[in-house]
Amino acid sequence: MKAYGAGETRVVALDHVDVDIDRGQFTAIMGPSGSGKSTLMHCLAGLDTVTSGQIFLDDTEITGLKDKKLTRLRRDRIGFVFQAFNLLPTLNALENITLPMDIAGRKPDRAWLERVVETVGLGGRLRHRPSQLSGGQQQRVAVARALAARPEIVFGDEPTGNLDSRAGAEVLGFLRRSVDELGQTIVMVTHDPVAASYADRVLYLADGRIVDEMRQPTADQVLDRMKDFDARGRTS
Ligand SMILES: Nc1ncnc2c1ncn2[C@@H]1O[C@H](COP(=O)(O)OP(=O)(O)OP(=O)(O)O)[C@@H](O)[C@H]1O
Ligand SMILES: [Mg+2]
User: Fold this and answer.
1) How far is the CA of 34 from the centre of ligand 1 (A)?
2) Does the beta carbon of 42 sit less than 6 angstroms from any atom of ligand 1?
3) Is the Cβ atom of 168 under 6 angstroms away from ligand 1?
4) Binding site membership of 4 for ligand 1 (Cβ less than 6 Å)
5) Is there a contact between 234 and 226 (Cβ–Cβ < 8 Å)?
6) Three-class SS state of 143
């Protein structure tokens, strides 16, 4: 459970959510604005605390960790992709990708890094600065940066929200390949049925609860389900 504030301004953002994220799978989280998607993801990733309940990454209870250990867990075992790419303008693509590891004083696993860079498909663009890259290319750099340290799980809050459909498709294709070819685990918040169709499973949130899920979704099925929810929301 996650509540913000107290008394009259108290908002229950997550209400008895019980969910397992499958390893090596691509999970999408959908739901209306304000339904708790970002809150859920931030709690799962240890970026925010829960009011009650427990969260585990593998055997580690995230909700039981003190600041220092939590920071280290986030750094070593979790990757993030933000909606705004958050790349450093003075570094080239490759330097941006390895930056978190450089800061942590860790040597990148060369073979892994090469695979990530290859999967990213940036080809000759690695020495380019962000301003010399398209939006889709920049976001692919951001995804590669999240994968480079080989985290157990990667979270994205609308990682294609700022991209046109072609650039979005590039990034989603790369996320999909990182699951299929690199065994990555991914959780992505999205409003877009087409984006959700790249996932293995879609979780639907409404008013802080998980109200439905779908396996192997197609864009049409996701769209139909969204229309269902809208219709129900209007009549209830
Ligand atoms: N820091 C905060 N303080 C108070 N209430 C908050 C805070 N953050 C979120 N909320 C509330 O919690 C609920 C869930 O918010 P959340 O950001 O998780 O929604 P969301 O599903 O990600 O929405 P969107 O699609 O608009 O990004 C909302 O009612 C929101 O107003
Ligand atoms: Mg949100």
Assistant:
1) 5
2) no
3) no
4) yes
5) no
6) helix
What is the enclosing helix (H) or strand (E) of 135? helix 135-148
Pairing of strands 186-189, 11-14: unpaired
Ordered per-residue pLDDT tens for the chain, 236 residues: 999 998 889 999 999 999 999 999 999 999 999 999 999 999 999 999 999 999 999 999 999 899 999 999 999 899 999 888 889 999 999 999 999 899 888 888 899 898 888 877 777 899 999 999 988 889 889 989 998 888 999 999 999 888 888 888 988 998 999 999 889 999 999 999 999 999 999 999 999 999 999 999 999 999 999 888 777 766 55
Taking CA atoms, 222 is separated from 18, 110, 155, 177, in Å, by: 22, 39, 21, 21
Check: CB of residue 143 under 8 Å from CB of residue 172: no
Question: CA torsion, points 1, 72, 203, 10, in degrees to nearest 10?
Answer: 30
The answer to whether the CB of 13 falls within 8 A of the CB of 2 is: yes
Q: Using the atom order of ligand 1, give the atom closest to the CA of residue 189.
A: 22
Q: Tell me, what amino acid is at 177?
A: R
- The two structure tokens encoding residue 7: 């008394």
> Is the C-beta atom of 5 inside 6 A of ligand 1?
yes
Residue closest by Cα to atom 29 of ligand 1: 34
Under 8 Å between Cβ of 175 and 186: yes
Q: Which domains does the chain have, with CATH numbers?
A: 2-235 (3.40.50.300)
